[in-house]
Amino acid sequence: MTGPPNPEKSARAILSLFKSKDVRPNEMLEAGQVNDQFLILGGNREEYAEGLKHAIERGWLEPLTNSRFRLTETGFVEMRSTHDTGIL
Known about the structure:
The protein is 52% helix and 14% strand. The protein is of the alpha+beta class. It has a three-stranded antiparallel sheet.
């Protein structure tokens, strides 16, 4: 990503990663899977952390442990409205 961190854009990028894995409401992903893919696609750790925080605050993701997150129904609806236009 270029420019200053944008938590909204990073959170939507994280949702796009859940979408690419065909995750449904109440299903989980390992944080490491999401983080690794986020970094591969051009994000950095700060952007990932800010995006994850934003997604949790918006109710899109629910942290289960330090290493697992659940996609909420709200997150699923938002994820479906996120267009795949090159994540980062």
